[in-house]
Structure to design on (247 residues):
């Protein structure tokens, strides 16, 4: 089964160890989607009994659009599993070009075709500053930013009709929070159009805010919530915001 370690909408974090134990007891393997965890929430794949994991590198890993996806396969499974995507980079002898597909022995068998060098260079540059700071320090700042964000949302947005749509226990929160409001879409558009706050909208009614530790200050969190409160407090705001495709 495939599960998100950090839910893309609510930011809820699952217990990797308990999930692996339950899955293995039922004869299942777990593939973790780490798209909203990698580079943000510390994850111990080897130590938690994880079987497989995958994710993108254009979110917290700063690779930008076109950055490569990646894969983790527990060592014992590497020679048992076969990638469904066969390519010459996954062959034991890359240049054999024979009739039969003969995959390489280890993690190399999960390679497919020729990678985008531009994408790899970008993600290399994006990850470097995170490695210099270290996941522990990054996560310490992220947790504090998210705690401030939760407190400010509670104080300023809930009285204006918003509902916190993320777990309240800090241990179950990842790097972003969701707040639900019936005017979520116009609020997000107006925040972008007026500049300064880039939140995103997730249907049907969620505003998602991710105070990324590497480049977000505590005062930014404070100011962002003040601006959202300003928009929510004005009932006329958003009347002229047409629906549009969301990415
Ligand atoms: C961003 C994201 C991905 C990445 O998908 P791509 O096809 O690589 O763009 C996967 N899963 C979730 C939950 C995501 O949020």
């Amino acid at each position: 089964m495939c599960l998100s370690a950090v839910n893309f909408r609510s930011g809820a974090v699952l217990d990797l160890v308990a999930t692996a134990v339950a899955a293995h007891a039922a004869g299942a393997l777990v593939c973790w989607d780490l798209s909203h965890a990698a580079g943000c929430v510390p994850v111990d794949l080897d130590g938690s009994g994880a079987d497989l994991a995958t994710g993108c590198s254009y979110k917290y890993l700063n690779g930008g659009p076109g950055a490569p996806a990646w894969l983790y396969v527990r060592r014992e499974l590497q020679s048992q599993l076969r990638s469904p995507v066969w390519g010459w980079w996954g062959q034991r002898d890359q240049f054999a070009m024979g009739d039969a597909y003969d995959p390489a022995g280890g993690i190399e068998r999960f390679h497919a075709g020729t990678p985008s060098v531009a994408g790899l260079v970008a993600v290399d540059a994006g990850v470097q500053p995170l490695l210099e700071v270290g996941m522990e320090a990054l996560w310490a700042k992220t947790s504090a930013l998210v705690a401030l964000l939760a407190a400010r949302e509670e104080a300023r947005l809930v009285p204006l009709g918003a509902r916190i749509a993320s777990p309240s226990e800090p241990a179950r929160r990842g790097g972003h929070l969701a707040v639900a409001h019936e005017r979520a879409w116009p609020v997000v558009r107006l925040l972008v159009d007026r500049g300064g706050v880039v939140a995103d909208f997730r249907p049907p009614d969620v505003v998602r805010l991710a105070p990324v530790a590497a480049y977000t200050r505590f005062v930014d969190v404070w100011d962002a919530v003040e601006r959202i409160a300003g928009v929510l407090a004005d009932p006329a705001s958003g009347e002229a915001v047409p629906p549009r495709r969301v990415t």
